[in-house]
Amino acid sequence: xxxxxxxxxxxxxxxxxxxxxxxxxxxxxxxxxxxxxxxxxxxxxxxxxxxxxxxxxxxxxxxxxxxxxxxxxxxxxxxxxxxxxxxxxxxxxxxxxxxxxxxxxxxxxxxxxxxxxxxxxxxxxxxxxxxxxxxxxxxxxxxxxxxxxxxxxxxxxxxxxxxxxxxxxxxxxxxxxxxxxxxxxxxxxxxxxxxxxxxxxxxxxxxxxxxxxxxxxxxxxxxxxxxxxxxxxxxxxxxxxxxxxxxxxxxxxx
Length: 254
Fold this sequence. Notes:
Elements: E1 19-27, H1 36-50, E2 66-69, E3 77-87, H2 93-103, E4 108-115, H3 121-124, E5 127-138, H4 139-151, E6 156-161, E7 164-169, E8 174-179, E9 187-195, H5 203-214, E10 223-230, H6 244-253
Parallel strand pairs: 3-10
Antiparallel strand pairs: 1-3, 1-4, 2-3, 5-9, 5-10, 6-7, 8-9
Helix pairs in contact: 1-2, 4-5
């Protein structure tokens, strides 16, 4: 045989996907400062520790078949993160939730696992509800700034993205903005519901818009938590549970 480039080995056989599950998890405490890549690494380690029968892609360099949807930005806590696992064996979703939660670091907490029984899951993630706490600003000051933003027709903000500096209207993505009623501390708290669009309008974009319309500049870093993401409900301000359709389908076929 003549010398030259090594021959590529044939693609290895991979086990077929027999089940897909959707995982609802949280990002809490100090782990809100972890990046999406940090979570990916932690999840893949947890899958190995828990013995999850994850399916792999075909090809020269197989990868675990994991699909992520709408991950929260670094520095933001979340009670509503979602991903989908493709499995090579059938598992009980409740047992998988327990095993995966035990294998993940505290702060990356599995809330629920359901069998993926419907399509178009990502399309159901229409909006996110964010809680923005501004500890150094008074409640009345923050709520007044929020009212100015809500009354504006358009507020353009700029942010560096992977494709360069982008300027976009942050106001058009807002479907609800109000103060948090249960606020015994009296500090500034806003709850906003933001429609998912391209580019995504993030909580820091909302804060940039508040700075523009009301000169609102917090000196202490805000504490931001995603409370929910899912379909926009008929009242135009509430966020629905994106896993309802999967639960109902499984319950109806059981």
